[in-house]
Predict the structure.
Amino acid sequence: MAINPDAVGQKGQPSKRSWTSKDALLYAVGIGAGTEELQYTTENTKDVMQKVFPTFAVIIGGGGIPMKEVGSFNPFLMVHGEQGIELLGEIPPDGEIESTGECTAIWDKGSAAVLEFTSESRDLKTNELLLRTKTSLFCRGEGGWGGDRGPSEKLDFPSRAPDIRITYPTREDQALTYRLSGDRNPLHSDPSFATAGGFEKPILHGLCTYGITGRALLHGLCDGDPGRFLSMNARFSKPVIPGDILTVSMWVDGQKALFRTENQDDQVVIDQGEFNFK
């Protein structure tokens, strides 16, 4: 069975997901937060209330999508293309949500197919919508059925220097921490598996790089206040190797910003970034 373009519009079954304070703390350490961010990395510091990074949405959200309905593809040839999150409230340190998802687009890129899914998650304690996610998967070798190639527009980044730049180093064991938040793909931990996939060594999870980038946006544009973090969307453009040094550049226009993330060799690893804040 190949990709089924008629799956667009299909909805999945609602799914529930719960998490604890420990899960949120582990995620924070997994994206590099440390002793200068105790509101995110501890739950019992004097006069400090635990907060949750907004990008934790990629861990708890995204459920209920109709993955089976889109057909089949080789998971070894699938890469994360784009990721978006929208926060309608602060994520609590402990909680449970119910998510409903939908396949919103399937594009034929010729040599590949792009699958797009959206998901909405409702806080079961308050019955309020808490977050939305949008995920695009790039499936190599699955295109060519003559379908629509999809949009090709790109963001127009300013020619001026960025208004804000924040640099974070990654640890050589960063992926070993981040994988404990749920993604146990051996591509990020097993040298032999990474070599079989065409990499010299295990690579960092794309969503870890996404979280590190979100950290920079949170501190650079929201003064570390997750209540001001509204939405973030970006494209994955190049793998990150644990130990790389990442710099997030931001161009601000009112309550919006464009951003990209580069490694120490000035190679763009996250591109086409859009951020909204208050």
Q: What stands out?
A: Strands lie at 15-19, 78-87, 95-108, 112-123, 129-140, 164-169, 229-236, 245-253, 256-262, 268-277. The CA atoms of residues 87 and 131 lie 5 Å apart. The helical segments are 21-30, 38-41, 57-60, 174-178, 191-196, 206-221. The first strand starts at residue 15 and ends at 19.
